[in-house]
Amino acid sequence: MKATEKSDMYSMGIVLMELVSGKMPTDAAFRAEMDMVRWVEMNLNMQGTAGEEVIDPKLKPLLRGEEVAAFQVLEIAIQCTKAAPQERPTARQVCDLLLRVSNNKKVEFEKTNLDHY
Fold it and tell me: What is the pTM of this model?
């Protein structure tokens, strides 16, 4: 296996998930059929308190803007961990997206192209 920018982006996505969730990829919550990426995706798609389980309790209580930012960082992480490497953003795109989050701007993703956000 050769290291590439796209494999680095996958790793970046995992690190972002670790930071927001407080969990490690080897956490006991993840079993053979449930890895960290699937767990985050599943929880992000749930409404109410189930979706909030993905945020590390040590980060709480969050202000509304902070909670939105945490979920946006997780959305960026999901983009970074797409199964197909060509669907993952570039390092520049991830930096730009994280800057938008830090500047309290909404991050939106187009389904097929990350060039326009």
Answer: 0.83
**C-alpha closest to that of 9 among 113, 82, 114:** 82
**What tokens appear for 32 in the block?**
């053979």
**Nearest CA-CA partner of 68 in 38, 115, 103, 111:** 103
- Tokens in use for 48? 């109410």
Give the position of tokens 């990829």.
Answer: 25
Read off the tokens for 57.
């309790």
Over residues 4-39, the pLDDT tens digits come to 888 899 999 999 999 999 999 888 877 778 899 999
- Asked if 9 and 91 touch (Cβ cutoff 8 Å), the reply is yes
Residues whose CB is less than 8 angstroms from the CB of residue 86 and which lie 6 or more positions away in sequence, other chains included = 6
Token pair 């570039």: residue:
90
Q: From CA 69, how far away is CA 3, in angstroms rounded?
A: 30
